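Question (not urgent): is this output format expected?
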Amino acid sequence: MERGSYQTIGKYFRYETVKIKGSRFIATAQSVESAPTAEMFIKNIRKEFFNATHNCWAYRLSDNDQFRYHDDGEPSGTAGKPILQAIQGLGLYFSAVVVTRYFGGKKLGTGGLTRAYRQAGIAVLERAKIVTKKLYVWYRIRHDFDQTDPVMHTVSRSGAKIVSMSYDSQAHLKVVVERTLSDALISRLTEATGGKISYEKTGVEYA
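Got this back:
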């Protein structure tokens, strides 16, 4: 996944919906960086609610079909998938939700279960803080000293940030810029210096 930005859960959040035919539905949501992170989050919730009737869950990572869900003993397709649909419906990535159920003595039927789990997932996500993560690109830039003014001016007006500078026979800059602005930055630097710079892409990260 390399999109310019994505939305995810800002911080751990929990919400309990109203009881449905006596059953309690407690939804817990958290951002997750990877499948192992998601599995650990789920494991911790299962441990916390060890005496619950069910701990059903879903998580979604990137665009590339990186998702999983589980019904934890509920009828197939009535719990994990509706939770996943809640995550997808809000356009969230790198997000996990566990819905804990304490059975209230009355069966809900497959349709009732599907609605209850989806609504619990939606409820916790709509109340959680949602943040936007942007993709940033890191560059190492080298230039002669007589190109300092055009380089500094161009970096400044291109929305980039100079992280560090060092000098030997040339100036060396570490620069970070949003992915959506990175191509324009390199193009402007090349134009401003008449091609008298060298650069290397050293990494990308979401923040």
